[in-house]
């Protein structure tokens, strides 16, 4: 029995979460769900986008599923607060192509591991006389921790190569530390190939020869940009899941936001949320059920009949999720 904290959030976050929970209920596992609140609707009601109780519930859970929130400029970001509070230092973003989905490449299957706690997103900015500066914080500890995570992940999932992405020729000190940390950690994993690439070259390789990559590990901003590029390679936001993992806790969420233009219409693609649940099952060590759920979704995508409008179909969120559920029951 697993205790899950569920944070549906706002807009289509609520819709894709509900659809995904219905599917989880058909797995051969037992879940105990606790719903927690975050986002704009929560702010209107409680005065906070991320109440302490929500953070505590995410901390206590075996894993947390997060839908999506509407963020209003000036409000505290719920997801960034959660990542910090739970020290979810590894952001995992798979780039995987699925049959039946229009994408630039076939048979693509790589994972971007993004450092989630420092880099240019440390939030240390300052106005100067003539403009402003931002501090790019890179520590040995966080660099080694994220590189070790990437190699462990490669080892656990049977992947053969880890590529560090950096710009150490220009950012000599910060990315120098990151690159050194990478090769120091790599020495402990002799069976996994280690290489490094400059971020600008990597941006190009991802659209010219992406199949040569397996696991990428990089700092915060580079990881954010490259993973959106990755989502674009394989069918867009409706299909892009992510994981935020720390040593004690983990949170799984689609990459997309609350989809204001779609909200209330019941036609959001549930795939990104379902694939986030697949990542959660893998994290929990439930590999068989994770594969079974992914295969069921793949079947629905491959047939392409009961899919949402963004995938060229006319099914609702609930119908598409229902079809995934049917496939699960049959297998
Ligand atoms: P968005 O991801 O909500 O939407 C971008 C585009 O992708 C829209 O055209 C939308 O219709 C489409 N799309 C997104 N998810 C889809 C799905 N499941 N099925 C089909 N189409 C889908 O990003 P946008 O519009 O920039 O932001 C909307 C709100 O979400 C904002 O308040 C933003 O701050 C917030 N946001 C929240 C995130 C989170 O909770 N982690 C992440 C990104 C944005
Ligand atoms: Mg982003």
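-> sequence recovered:
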């Amino acid at each position: 029995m697993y205790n899950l904290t569920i944070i549906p959030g706002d807009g289509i976050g609520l819709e894709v979460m509900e659809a995904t929970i219905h599917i989880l209920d058909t797995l051969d596992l037992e879940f105990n769900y606790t719903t927690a609140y975050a986002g704009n609707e929560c702010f209107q009601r409680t005065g906070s986008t991320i109440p302490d109780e929500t953070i505590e519930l995410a901390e206590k859970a075996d894993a947390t599923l997060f839908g999506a929130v509407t963020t209003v400029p000036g409000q505290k970001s719920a997801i960034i607060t959660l990542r910090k509070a739970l020290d979810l230092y590894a952001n995992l973003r798979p780039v995987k192509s699925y049959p039946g989905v229009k994408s630039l490449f076939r048979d693509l299957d790589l994972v971007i591991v993004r450092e989630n706690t420092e880099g240019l997103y440390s939030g240390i900015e300052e106005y100067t006389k003539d403009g402003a500066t931002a501090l790019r914080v890179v520590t040995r500890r966080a660099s080694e921790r994220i590189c070790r995570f990437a190699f462990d992940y490669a080892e656990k999932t049977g992947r053969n190569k880890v590529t560090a992405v950096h710009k150490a020729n220009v950012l000599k000190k910060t990315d120098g530390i990151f690159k050194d940390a990478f090769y120091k950690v790599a020495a402990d994993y002799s069976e996994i190939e280690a290489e490094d690439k400059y971020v600008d070259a990597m941006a190009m390789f991802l659209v010219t020869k992406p199949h040569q990559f397996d696991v990428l590990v990089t700092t915060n901003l580079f990881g954010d940009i490259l993973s959106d590029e990755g989502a674009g390679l394989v069918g867009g936001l409706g299909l892009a899941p992510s994981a935020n993992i720390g040593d004690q806790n983990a949170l799984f969420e689609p990459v997309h936001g609350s989809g204001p233009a779609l909200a209330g219409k019941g036609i959001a693609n549930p795939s990104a949320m379902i694939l986030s649940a697949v990542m959660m099952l893998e994290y929990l060590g439930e590999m068989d059920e994770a594969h079974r759920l992914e295969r069921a979704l793949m079947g629905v995508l491959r047939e392409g009949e009961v899919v949402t409008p963004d995938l060229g179909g006319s099914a609702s969120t609930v119908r598409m999720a229902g079809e995934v559920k049917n496939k699960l029951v049959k297998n």
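The two ends are 22 Å apart (CA to CA).
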